[in-house]
Design a protein that fits this description.
The protein has helices spanning 42-45, 66-71, 123-127; strands spanning 5-17, 23-31, 34-40, 49-55, 78-85, 97-98, 108-114, 117-121, 165-168, 171-183, 188-192, 202-207. The protein has 209 residues and is mostly beta strands. The radius of gyration is 23 Å and the shape is extended.
């Protein structure tokens, strides 16, 4: 059974040296261990998926409410549930532990996470607007958005108009990142390049199709 994915936590970035002497920028991820907390099937749930739980440090039991305790009965030390769609759940059962052993050097993975939050940002930072002219007497339009719509018709601002607002902190998927190293003994995964989110953020890692 090739597992659909694993949950990880971003540790940070570093570099590794290849055999030819080239330095490669990599992101270090604490990938797992994870445990299967639920198996969903098309007959019962309408689709096939595997729900995984991220295992916390040994001896640390997260606080759970009553529904969570019932859902995670007989599975200790689990938090951060995430669901992975899959075509085959026949060989997966609740309680299975998954590590990065199903990945190897050279595999391609997709990493999903929430990007860094940038707070309230203007249109130049958020949408790459050029800004107003820097001459001809104007002094307060340099970073303004300009017109946001006509007056008589349609007489309103159209939905989706690029304007200032909350930037970042949105779900992002980075595709086809190469696995540089997978270490099941230390639950470490090194992928080439950067992944979304801040250090310590939660990641969903799945094999690229």
């Amino acid at each position: 059974m090739v597992y659909p994915g694993i949950i990880g936590k971003k540790i940070g970035m570093t570099q590794v040296f290849q055999e030819n002497g080239d330095a490669t920028a990599v992101t270090v991820i604490q990938a797992g261990p994870t445990v299967v907390t639920q198996v969903k099937t098309g007959d019962r749930d309408g689709y096939d998926a595997v729900q995984l739980g991220f295992v916390t440090a040994e001896g640390k039991q997260p606080r759970l409410n009553s529904p969570e305790k019932g859902h995670l009965r007989a599975i200790d030390g689990v938090r951060h549930l995430r669901e992975f769609r899959t075509d085959d759940t026949s060989s997966v059962k609740r309680g299975d532990r998954i590590d990065v052993g199903f990945l190897k050097q050279g595999d391609l993975v997709n990493v999903t996470a929430f990007s860094k939050g940038k707070g309230f940002a203007g249109v130049m930072k958020r949408h790459n607007f050029a800004g107003g002219p820097k001459s001809h007497g104007q002094s307060d339009r340099a970073r303004a958005p300009g017109s946001i719509g006509a007056g008589t018709f349609p007489g309103r601002v159209l939905k989706g108009k690029a304007m200032a607002g909350h930037m970042g902190d949105s779900r992002v998927k980075e595709r086809n990142l190469e696995v540089v190293e997978a270490d099941p003994e230390r639950n470490l995964l090194l992928v080439k390049g950067a992944v979304p989110g801040a250090n310590g953020g939660l990641l969903m890692i799945e094999k690229a199709r």
